[in-house]
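Dear colleague,

Thank you for sharing your sequence with our group. We've completed the structure prediction you requested, and as agreed, I am returning the results in plain text so they can be pasted directly into your records. Please verify that the sequence below matches your submission; if there's any discrepancy, let me know and we will rerun it promptly.
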Amino acid sequence: QVQLVESGGGLVQPGGSLRLSCAVSGSILSINIMGWYRQAPGKRREMAALISNTGSTNYADSVKGRFTISRDNAKNAVYLQMNSLKPEDTAVYYCNAMAFGTTPFNSWGQGTQVTVSS
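Please find the predicted structure tokens below.
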């Protein structure tokens, strides 16, 4: 298992940018896939972006071209750069880590609020 702590959320105007960070305690190299998920009020949690340990990425259609996920193995961290933010991006954003194989786990952070509003 790993512990995940998100930071970087806040209030931003439409069209603005935010960068979320997820600090990983434990070895990030043990993680197969890391991701950012989000949950808006009254809605189900949904995937926003994923990155594998080989660097492959996957994005929800709603964020493609605006969000960029990256990972820094040396710093044990994953980031989500969010540009051209829209009010519909308002949600709690959660960091997730999944490991497969002999010691599988699925860990979540506590979430960070992102509010896009004028």
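Summary note from our side: The longest strand covers residues 91-99.

Kind regards,
the structure core
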